[in-house]
């Protein structure tokens, strides 16, 4: 497996599994693509749910979410435990405690299975959240966060964009997002 490692943020040791930065890769894809992974690790990409499962189930893992808005301001969220189950459980999200500056937009998705446009596991009966939000995620009721939404050039009034509601609200689409993991017991050099 070829992966992108971040050796600078907060002491390094991070394996990046998701990046959005310019809209060059279409993230409105189906189950098979999210299972396998897509994009290019030097640009926009999703590592793949099978790989994320393997990486997060060998040891206790921490996740960090780095975000940037269209003015260049940055925020982050860290969860002290992060794991994704195997495909036979639909990649259920396990999540620990939050810390950071972006606000906690992920905890409401704790315990949720992954939803794509062709496979629905959310708690929103009238609609498939992946279709409504134009991107796959661990949806509960289509709100709070979706970093795999449609990439827009600009941030306002875009409910189906790259969203982290506790920072910029429900209808602001971010310029950049990056999700990364490392062992919880990692000690920086």
Q: What would you say this structure looks like, in words?
A:
Keywords: Disulfide bond. By secondary structure, this protein is of the alpha+beta class. The chain has a single domain, classed as Gamma Fibrinogen, Chain A, domain 1 (Alpha-Beta Complex), CATH 3.90.215. Helix content is 12%, strand content 26%. The protein has 4 helices and 12 strands; from the N terminus they run ββαββαβββββαββαβ. It has helices at residues 31-36, 49-56, 129-132, 165-168; strands at 4-6, 14-20, 38-39, 45-46, 61-68, 74-79, 82-84, 93-95, 98-100, 145-146, 163-164, 176-183. Strands 1, 2, 3, 4, 5, 6, 9 and 12 form an 8-stranded antiparallel β-sheet that branches. Strands 7-8 form a two-stranded antiparallel ribbon. It is globular. The chain starts with a strand and ends in a 6-residue tail after the last strand. The model has no long low-confidence stretch (mean pLDDT 95).
CATH A-level architecture:
Alpha-Beta Complex
The rounded distance between the terminal residues' Cα atoms is 25 Å
Unreliable runs, pLDDT <50, ≥5 residues? none
Might you state the CATH topology name?
A: Gamma Fibrinogen, Chain A, domain 1
The count of β-strands is: 12
Write down the Rg. Answer: 15 Å
Can you tell me the number of structural domains?
1
Largest sheet: 8 strands, antiparallel
Number of helices: 4
Q: H/E series, N to C?
A: EEHEEHEEEEEHEEHE
CATH class annotation: Alpha Beta
Q: How does the helix and strand content classify structurally?
A: alpha+beta
User: What does the average pLDDT come to?
Assistant: 95
Our estimate of the beta-strand percent is 25-35%
Q: At the fourth CATH level, what is the homologous superfamily?
A: Gamma Fibrinogen, chain A, domain 1
User: What share of the residues lie within helices?
Assistant: 10-25%
Shape: globular
Domain Fibrinogen C-terminal: 1-185
Organism: Nematostella vectensis
InterPro entries: Fibrinogen-like_C, Fibrinogen_a/b/g_C_1, Fibrinogen_a/b/g_C_dom, Fibrinogen_C-term_domain, Fibrinogen_CS
Keywords: Disulfide bond
């Amino acid at each position: 497996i070829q992966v992108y490692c971040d050796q600078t943020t907060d002491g390094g040791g991070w394996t990046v599994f998701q990046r959005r930065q310019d809209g060059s890769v279409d993230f409105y894809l189906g189950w098979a693509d999210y299972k396998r992974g897509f994009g290019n690790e030097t640009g926009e990409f999703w590592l793949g749910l099978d790989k994320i499962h393997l990486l997060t189930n060998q040891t206790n893992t921490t996740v960090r979410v780095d975000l940037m808005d269209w003015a260049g301001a940055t925020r982050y969220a860290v969860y002290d435990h992060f794991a994704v189950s195997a495909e036979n459980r639909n990649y259920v999200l396990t999540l620990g405690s939050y810390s950071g500056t972006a606000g906690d937009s992920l905890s409401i998705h704790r315990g949720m299975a992954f939803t794509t446009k062709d496979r629905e596991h959310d708690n929103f009966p009238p609609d498939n959240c992946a279709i409504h939000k134009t991107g796959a995620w661990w949806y509960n009721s289509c709100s709070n966060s979706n970093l795999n939404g449609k990439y827009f050039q600009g941030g306002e009034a875009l409910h189906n964009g790259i969203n982290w509601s506790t920072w910029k609200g429900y209808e602001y689409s971010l310029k950049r997002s990056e999700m990364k993991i490392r062992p919880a017991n990692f000690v920086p050099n």
